[in-house]
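User: Hey, quick favor. My workstation is busy. Could you predict this chain's structure for me?
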Amino acid sequence: MENKTVILTTLNAAWATPGSIIDLFIESFQIGDGTRKLLDHLVIIALDKQTYVRCLSIHAHCFPLITEGADFSDEKLFMSAGYLSMMWTRIEFLRLVLEKGYNFIFSDVDILWFRNPLPQFYPEDDFQIACDHFMGDAFDLQNIPNGGFNYVKSNNRTIEFYKFWHASREKFPGHHDQDVFNFIKHDPYLLEMGIRVRFLSTAYFGGLCEPSRDFSKVCTMHANCCVGLSRKIHDLRVMLDDWRTYMSLPWKVKRSRAFSWRVPQNCSLAPLGS
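Assistant: No problem, here it is.
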């Protein structure tokens, strides 16, 4: 990929078993519109030894990020101590990637890729992030961001921003990286460091919180607003089936824009078992 840009995702054993989310993630690249070639630029960051072994069996580029004294192998319940530790480990690692001179597209593994997102990024902006809810203005700080998908250019501004982001966890204990970003996006220090932040439209980068309505535009779909691994797997499979159906439609039907997602189905923010 041009300009030293890599695609990164993190993975633990709970999401790496055969038939689980990682297989659906890779499948989306394989059936997307011009996305198969992007697999050559995807690096899967394995958070435990078991996942690293599994990664090597299914993908060419795997990186072991094994944290001594931490076990990230099992499913981390949202906002649990293990979940928070895993999220902040990710932020620290991404800073190191920037310091090595690499731009990156970070994607949660529960995001399906249907088109190459690069044409939708803006070359003049440093940090571009997807949204759970997009208000219509790419620079409106009232947008509700989602840290599961972002495009970041390597420069002094973004490196300093990631340092500030990681350090801010101590100011806001008990919050995950996305919440802390939501707090610090208003901080005057961002203006001082000169970082250009843009929020990405859900028309191209959608999710279950706010789906991309136009199949002719959608680049990615995220299983956000969804608690529970089994729920995510079910609805991600439905999304893949919907995409296959859309791609098989005659051109005239595609142009009518009458096709829509059949999700959410199982996905919900309600606790499991409720």
